[in-house]
Amino acid sequence: MPATPLSIRNWLTLATSFVILMVAFSFGLFSLPQFYPSLVRIFHWNRATVTAGGSIVLLLVGILSPLVGSLVDRFRPKRVLLGGMCLVALALGMLSFAATRTQYYAFCVILGAGASAVSILPNSILIGPWFSRNRGLAVGFVNAGIGLGGVAPTITAAQIARRGVPGAFLFLAACIAIPLLMTLLIVKDGARGAHSAAGRAPSAAELARMPMFWIFGMSLFFTAHAMLGIQQNLVLYLTGEGIPMQAAAHVFTIALLAAALGKLISGVLADRLSARAGMLFSISCVGLGILALLETPAQSGLIDVLAIVFGMGYGGIFNASPTIVFEYFGTHQVGRALGLFYVFFGLGTASGGVLAGYLFDLTRSYSTPFVLDLVLAAFALALILLTARATRPSPVTAGAALSARRRVAA
Q: Could you give the C-alpha distances from 364 to 40, 237, 281, in angstroms and in order?
């Protein structure tokens, strides 16, 4: 039977998911580093202290992912996304009057919980069942919203200059109304996806016995740690090298916008070859970007070029978890399995930024943390390359998954 044409609502749902990641998720995460120099200046906190707030957010995005996945499996993605957007708006509003480290960290906890609930996990499960043939590209497209959310640093810098730190936080909180209304008016939880090759998604115990889980998981951890060590400290590094705030925000924005292209490329590679191929591309770009950053003066015009290379890898790696899970297990009731992969990702993103900030405070130089990030990216790449057999779906698994996709398309 021919595939059933996608309705206008399906395409609008895809667009809504894109906007959720561009605004609710990205503004909550990518705007925060732009506040770091102001927080250091106003409260006289050190860099490890201010970057710890971002690490708290990123840690919670990861460690809460199994819970978010379970909630998605039970209540469907729309309700989880709506709740998450409310939490993100609340947290940004509360950060506008944070005056102590305790308040700052407490509000970052709320922001992390909200960001986890509007992350790639529920959005991927929302749109994944509708796209049986180009699922990797569809995931890459909605995740490209995170890349376009790279305008957040530039917008935030302008708002800080115009309204001050409290006003900028309130402005970002108000922006969450856009994806919230779109979700209420457009999204329906009606799609049912392809079942896993075994007829069901694996339990946590079953997943833990699979070598691919640990290989992919550790590679995600090392890559996420490396790239967030750069991302969370890039503005601090550039401004410390004498680059004006607006120019530093411009470089950061270029990297995040390039992430959109990286997500699309990674998604196409996952569709045409495998999720493993998309992951190899992304890790390679992250490593090359870090190497170029170490060898390029901050004042060089080439800084924008290395930001593009790094950004493509930074963006592409966000596709890894959903494309891996969909390739192995289909799209039905896979929220918990997907959430377990995001634990590795979340632990890596949470540790990268704060460790880099701590090492700078210790050595007064970013050379040491950036070299460490390069080594970890190289290790993640080697791990995937050296375990090729264990990270490819077996013919039985691949054939069953293909049959499931064909049943959905029929």
A: 15, 11, 33
Average pLDDT, integer, range 204-210? 79
Q: How far apart are CA 341 and CA 325, in angstroms?
A: 9
Q: How far is CA 393 from CA 19, 165, 253, 283, in A?
A: 32, 49, 36, 20
CB 135 within 8 A of CB 11: no
User: Taking the CB of residue 326, how many other CB atoms lie within 10 A of it?
Assistant: 28
Q: What residue spans define the domains of the chain?
A: 8-409
Mean pLDDT of 203-215: 82
SS (H, E, C) 102-128: HHHHHHHHHHHHHHHHCCHHHHHHHHH
pTM listed for this prediction? 0.69
* Per-residue model confidence (pLDDT) at position 363: 86
Q: Which fold has domain 8-409?
A: Growth Hormone; Chain: A; (1.20.1250)
- Which of residues 339 and 106 earns the better pLDDT score? 106
- The number of CA neighbours under 13 Å toward the Cβ of 66 is 10
User: What value does the mean pLDDT take over residues 101-117?
Assistant: 91
Strands (E) across 120-263 are located at none
The answer on pLDDT for 406 being more than 50 is no
Residue 188's Cβ-count burial label (10 Å; 0-12, 13-18, 19+) is: exposed
Q: How many residues does the chain have?
A: 410
